[in-house]
Amino acid sequence: VLADATKSSAYKLATDSSNRPVIAHTVRCTNDIDAEDSKQDITVRRWSGSSWKTLGSVVDRLANRGASVIGLAVDSKNTTYVLFEQCFTYSGTSCTNKHLYLSKYAR
Prior knowledge:
It is a single chain. By secondary structure, the protein is mainly β. About 0% of the residues lie in helices and about 55% in strands. The protein contains no helices and 7 strands. It has strands spanning about 10-15, 20-30, 40-45, 50-55, 65-75, 80-90, 95-105. The strands form 2 sheets. Strands 1-2-3-4 form a 4-stranded antiparallel beta sheet, with no helix packed on it. Strands 5-6-7 form a 3-stranded antiparallel beta sheet, with no helix packed on it. A hairpin with a 5-residue loop joins β5 (about 65-75) and β6 (about 80-90). The radius of gyration is 14 Å and the shape is elongated. It starts with 7 loop residues before the first strand and ends with a strand.
């Protein structure tokens, strides 16, 4: 099992140079106290051949601001790139301004 589907959404899948799957997916923010809130962090994992290995730390540039995966790519050296957007400004509970970010995970 890769993730609890009740707490995850917005999956992106790519393969590395050895054709092993790499996945980026959202998970509910660990500090999110409102269970109905849609604020998400992003986790990136690679299949090792026997288990899923998390690459780096959870992607959350702006703590508890809600992130969503836009794209996932892996280059020939197995460096993984995740393009994501995250809410920068809220008006009440609605996001009014999003920023794009690119995270890089070296092998």
